[in-house]
Amino acid sequence: MPAAAAVSSVPDALGRFGRFGGRYVPETLSAALDQLEREYALARADQAFQAELDGLLAAFVGRPTPLLFAKRLTEYAGGAQIYFKREDLSHTGAHKINNTLGQGLLAIRMGKRRIIAETGAGQHGVATATACARFGLECVVYMGAEDVRRQAPNVRNMRFMGAEVRPVNTGSRTLRDAINEAMRDWMGSVDTTHYIIGSVVGPHPFPRIVRDFQSVIGRETVEQCRRQFGRLPDAVVACVGGGSNAAGMFHPFVDHPEVRLVGVEAGGRSGLPGDHAASLSYGSPGILHGSLSYVLQDQDGQTADVHSVSAGLDYPGVGPEHAYWHDTGRVEYTSVTDAEALDAFDLVARREGVLPALETSHALAWAASEAAKRPASEILVVCLSGRGDKDAAEIARLRGLAADGSGGAR
Amino acid sequence: MTPPDSGPTPLARLEAAFAAARSGGRKALAPFVTAGDPDPTTSVAVLEAVGRAGATLCELGVPYSDPIADGPVIQASYTRALTSGITLEHVFSIAREASSRVTMPILAMASYSLIFRRGIDRFVADARAAGLAGFVVPDLPLEESDDLDHACRTAGLALVRLVTPTTPPERAEAIARRSTGFLYCVAVAGVTGARTELPPGLLDRIAWLRTKTDVPILVGFGISSPDQVRAVAAVADGVIVGSALVRRIADSATERPDEMLAAVERFTGELAAACG
Description:
Chain A is α/β, with parallel strands linked by helices. Chain A has helices at 30-44, 47-61, 71-77, 96-109, 123-135, 145-150, 152-160, 175-189, 206-214, 216-229, 244-250, 279-282, 320-328, 338-352, 358-371, 392-398; strands spanning 16-17, 20-21, 67-69, 81-86, 114-119, 138-144, 164-168, 193-195, 235-239, 260-268, 284-288, 291-295, 331-337, 379-384.
């Protein structure tokens, strides 16, 4: 039986996107998730809340972010016209701030003055620290020790803004373990603390809330395309780890079936288990961090170790709405390797004067290769989710370059 | 499905164990140990040791890679077991071996991630075949539990529910109504692990729960000493002690298994004496 077509009016009251989503958490967290769900419903209906958030998105974040024609990349690809939705120009350098401001305001409404967050690449950690500094909230960020090492500039920036960064040394010492530790903190602090989860993952209502706050990306893109081209784009592409920039970009397009939507996962070193982080491409339905989605796991349901050159995509799960879009066929999911992403980083740096994040470089790699196969009349929008300053040192290290970028094998 | 074997269901055996403790004037002691920690053979010996020392029932922790309700001690035991290659097959075989040697009922403490992955019906059938009496599923709230509840009722296994300090009263009543075997009263808002003091209001909360359900109420999370056991057992029907025991297994497991088993038996005996 073919799956029913995807609709945008998900999740249902139990947080289900089709069969995915839900809330699989210890009872200790149930009351807080109920409270969050209630408060979010009130906030959505509250014009003052929306106005305050919109004001911050304009003056603090710098929205709307531009839609830029990538002229020299388009010439290089020799096919479809490539446009960048410039989330990298947002305050703090990535889309993550859209969500942390929204959830920060929700925390204040709930009377919770302490914020915890997990971070992989550090962009969500920085965005959370930023929102907390702006709102005067206490901030603790959990970050895998391996990610603390490879994303040092973001760690420093979080500390500059008064956040406490707690390195996590359990498990694989990456994003997944940071989420575990944040959840454990929340188990004991739930009366006074709000957990600002950074992606469209976790128990209901988080996947919906984060998607909604990130949907400003897609709404602006729809409007900008209509204004600049008089029509919607032919294709929209975004990278997918947990999947927040992709969910925010895609959701306003879901009910426009003529727009092709493509999510690009981290293909890592190879398609072998442990070598990649492509949950939708290689995973199976399972429960991780409170929701049912696609998970990279062994036959018993133990979470698998994963790998990506990009800390923000180095995650064995994916948001439940992506699982729903995957199974309904509304969004195509594919993967790009570490090497292809690094090449795309170079390409976009040299041809566009934009240093993209390594996460974003996965979407750019697919876009450059796909544009070459499509006619020049077509328009392809890439969600340029974040800037790559945080990755510069790690890229230099991977290539054996000196800290000033000189020398090395390449 | 094959018809259930003759004789009492696992749930009935669990209820009988509580009744026996009650008629002996004792409260129930439910130690928690991790399956396969430090290895499958020793794990069976640990279960035998706690059984000999007077445990009424035992919770067998099924190692999981991402246990968000657990503190460092139990997390580390899961990691040790998984690193040494423990799979669900090992866990069921440990349970089968132990339940042929001890009379106390053994329940599995298992993440719903593992149950979902194997499939509810298969997991429940495997558990029943391994002699397990039921489940505690720490990450399965009431709203998501209908399917497992149905499978457990059909198989005659207990599905123990948890109430916590953050559970609102009406919800606590609904949870208590659905709990079979016993009701797990979580002492603290937080993860598992020893605390030096009992949380304020715990004894009142237990007394209130007592008016809402007839199933035994067992208290766990943060209870680590005979004195704490005595205080809680005065109002509850029993206590669960996990991290304090798991830590003793970790401290001496690899070098001196015999000493470790003796320490486990001695400590469990002290806890059992506090239930008397």
